[in-house]
Write a structure and sequence with these properties.
Layout (H helix, E strand, L loop, with lengths): L1 H13 L3 H12 L4 H7 L1 H4 L4 H30 L5 H9 L3 H8 L9 H7 L3 H9 L5 H6 L8 H18 L1 H14 L1 E6 L17 E5 L5 H12 L3 E6 L2 H12 L5 H50 L9 E5 L6 E6 L5 E7 L8 H14 L4 E5 L4 H14 L7 E5 L4 H5 L2 H6 L5 H14 L1 H5 L18 H19 L1 E2 L5 H5 L6 H14 L16 H7 L3 E2 L17 H10 L4 H6 L1 H5 L13 H12 L29 E10 L2 E5 L6 E4 L20 E10 L4 E5 L6
Parallel strand pairs: 4-7, 7-8, 9-10, 13-15
Antiparallel strand pairs: 1-2, 1-3, 4-5, 5-6, 11-12, 11-14, 12-13, 14-15
Length: about 725
């Protein structure tokens, strides 16, 4: 019954068919993962994609939370013996969290308020009498409630406190003020004067005296103001026209113009200013923060997706270099599987400047370990190290020249000090682990970056200011989605990478690696069933996303799920060939009429996917890697001049623009207004992470170390 109600509500909210939502909810309740549902259960969901399935899951969680809250509300009101059939019906029909709290507010246990004290003094009947507004002499009416030496004035004040609380808890009044906030609220930020001159305050300089309509306040501005508030630099408030709201409430509550009406009017104003307005301001502060969080998390997740799906070099013998000046450059050599073969430190730069020794060492390592590609971290001394290595490569021309790539170091130091790194390299120090991470990122960014907390990878904004639970859930979903969309080599994947495969997790991932260590490489997906604790449900969820290169059954190295092997074998049989022939020969696949195989749980979406997979089994959806060269004219911010056109790499994307590395150790900002010669909705509409772009320098603020760039084409 509950699932039926949820399916109806979710379908209505997301613009989907109820049948699609019902099928998805059933699969989610059965423990299926989002990647598995999107890939292998299209007939059950009407071919919904991962984004739609995730939205259904999120809405389902929200409705479950509301259902739990409703149970608490009903229980509390019932225990107070104030439940009525009408109230019970309203609660049952309510699926809006704000509306539910409004219904509950008059019954909600609260601290001892002024109104509660007045009720204890027996003044509620007086408040009711005043609200009727028929008494022309309220003092005389109040004298009847005098007891224990309580003055008439205090009786009237107590009655007003009760009315003020009634106003603040009244649903209609709350909706009225809420509407005012929704339409006209301004968010205002002011600097705390005593802290205005401090260095840490300068990053909030734009918000020292800032005001704008709340509904127009972008995610990044709101989060910046809230961070400044949290650090004690700014005071932030959300305001509306109080006079207009009091006037509107008075029209609702005040009837007449006698003395009682005047007391009610005073109570209404007090209730608004002391109780109702602060309550709604708090509500809108939370709602606006939640909205800003959701937008920041969405952008962060998309950045992370693009980073994880960055172009891989593949299995090549790689030299990884973590560059540095004083401490030297840490160099590692890795085999094609990413195993550490050798490491040493070189000192080609000042202040040590043992350039000749470094030259000889790098040339020898390239030759000895047959290095096919070199990855250099993009941190301190990156460009100087790249220039040095290029010099080595020019002289070492006796073998094929290794490709030379600059790789993002973000998060490498976090990885090198982590338990994962210590477990991988217990006998090596953090500098060696960091260089290994740089080298492996070139080979396969996804496999390496999943070992690092996404918040430390450097592609988010205000990630420490947003709701951490929601952020973790979103980023975990993103990592899971990326891992499963690429697929995982069952015989080379680390425990950490396997953890994100649909249906696995840390325990089963560890069991798979231990089984592999004890029994050798997997030769078929079916062997997974022998892994301890990996039961039929887990096998169903994970098998299609795991690849076995060189397996006897070629389907084991594809995205075709084992549950459909028999179907593919029947296709091959009907064509008078083997499955391997069907994969190898385009003309055989062209003769397959997939309509013949529709039946049961297998429909055209699944059959179409199978045929596409047979064209390129196990294909990697990621793009090919490209080498990149910074402009040799610039090495620091001092080399920049307005009007310069330079090549750069997009390193981070935010709501307000994109940050671009132009090789001067300080990323420049291309504001959204400078991204195109047309109006755009979001920077993600124009650029992607790690995209190579041409930019023009439009301003250099050396005092604040800021570079403003433009991607607009100049008018001829």
């Amino acid at each position: 019954m509950e699932q039926t109600i949820f399916a109806h509500l979710i379908a209505e909210r997301l613009g989907l068919r109820e049948k699609q939502v019902e099928g998805t909810l059933t699969l989610l309740d059965d423990g299926a993962t989002i990647p598995f549902i999107a890939r292998y259960r299209k007939e059950r969901t009407g071919a919904l994609d991962e984004v739609q399935i995730a939205a259904i899951s999120e809405q389902n969680d929200r409705l479950k939370d509301i259902q739990k809250r409703k149970e608490t509300v009903v229980k509390t009101i019932t225990e107070l013996d104030k439940m009525t059939p009408e109230l019970e019906r309203r609660i049952a029909d309510c699926w809006d969290a704000t509306e539910l709290e409004d219904i509950y507010l008059p019954f909600k246990p609260k601290r001892r308020t002024r109104a509660q004290v007045a009720r204890e003094q027996g003044l509620e009947p007086l408040a009711t009498l005043l609200l009727m507004q028929r008494e022309s002499n309220p003092e005389a009416a109040a004298s009847k409630f005098v007891r224990d030496g309580l003055p008439v004035s205090d009786c009237l004040k107590g009655a007003q406190d009760i009315i003020a609380e009634m106003v603040s808890e009244d649903e209609r009044s709350r909706q009225s003020v809420r509407g005012s906030f929704r339409r006209t609220a301004f968010i205002t930020s002011k600097v705390v004067k005593a802290k205005a001159e401090r260095d840490e305050a300068q990053k909030f300089l734009d918000y020292f005296d800032w005001s704008e309509p709340l509904k127009r306040c972008s995610s990044h501005r709101l989060l910046a103001m809230r961070r400044g508030e949290a650090e004690g630099i700014l005071r932030v408030s959300i305001t509306v026209d109080d006079e207009e709201n009091v006037e509107r409430l008075s029209r609702q509550w005040v009837r007449g113009s006698n003395a009682s009406s005047q007391l009610v009017a005073e109570a209404v104003e007090d209730g608004y200013k002391r109780l109702l307005c602060p309550s709604i301001e708090t509500e809108f502060a939370a709602l606006s923060k939640e909205k800003a969080d959701e937008e920041a998390i969405r952008v962060f997740a998309e950045n992370l997706r693009q980073l994880l799906l960055g172009a891989p070099l593949g299995q090549k013998r790689v030299m990884g270099i973590d560059p540095g000046f004083r401490t030297g450059c840490k160099v590692v050599c890795l085999d094609a599987q990413g195993n550490l073969l050798h490491h040493e430190a070189i000192f080609p730069h000042p202040p040590v400047r043992r350039t000749a020794d470094a030259f000889e060492a790098v040339a020898e390592m390239i030759k000895k370990y047959k290095v096919e590609a070199i990855a250099i971290g993009n941190g301190t001394a990156s460009r100087e190290t790249k220039a040095f290595v290029e010099m080595v490569l020019q002289e070492a021309s006796s073998q094929p020249r290794p490709g030379l790539f600059v790789v993002s170091e973000d998060g490498a130091s976090v990885y090198s000090a982590s338990k994962v790194a210590r477990d991988e390299f217990p006998d090596e120090d953090v500098t060696v682990r960091g260089a290994v991470s740089i080298g492996r990122r070139l080979m396969d960014p996804l496999a390496e970056l999943v070992k690092i907390d996404p918040k430390s990878i450097g592609v988010g904004q205000y990630q420490h200011d947003v709701d951490q639970g929601k952020l973790k859930k979103s980023l975990d979903q993103t990592v899971e989605s990326c891992v499963n969309s690429v697929g995982v080599n069952l015989n080379t994947a680390s425990v950490h990478l396997l953890t994100y495969v649909s249906g696995l997790g840390p325990a089963l991932a560890k069991n798979i690696v231990e089984y592999r260590r004890e029994n050798g490489a997997f030769t078929s997906r079916a062997q997974l069933k022998k892994v301890p604790r990996l039961g039929p449900a887990a096998f169903e969820q994970c098998a299609g996303f795991l690849r076995i290169s060189g397996a006897k059954n070629p389907l084991d190295n594809s995205a075709v799920h084992p549950e459909r092997y028999a179907l593919v074998e029947q296709m091959a049989k009907d064509q008078g060939c083997t499955v391997a022939d069907l994969i190898a020969q385009k003309d055989l696949r062209a003769r397959v009429d997939i309509n013949r195989y529709v039946g049961g749980e297998v429909g055209l979406p699944t059959l179409t996917d199978i045929l596409k997979e047979l064209e390129k089994p196990g294909r990697d959806p990621r793009q090919a890697l490209e080498e990149f060269e910074f402009d040799s004219r610039v090495a620091s911010i001092d080399d920049l001049a307005e009007g310069m056109e330079l090549l750069g790499i997009v390193t981070n994307i935010t709501n307000f623009g994109a940050f671009v590395d132009i090789g001067v150790h300080q990323d420049g900002l291309v504001h959204i207004s400078q991204m195109a010669n047309r109006r755009i909705n979001h920077p993600l509409d124009v650029v992607k992470l790690h995209q190579h772009v041409r930019v023009r320098v439009i301003e250099v603020d050396r005092r604040r170390n800021r570079i403003s760039l433009s991607m607009k084409q100049t008018q001829q």
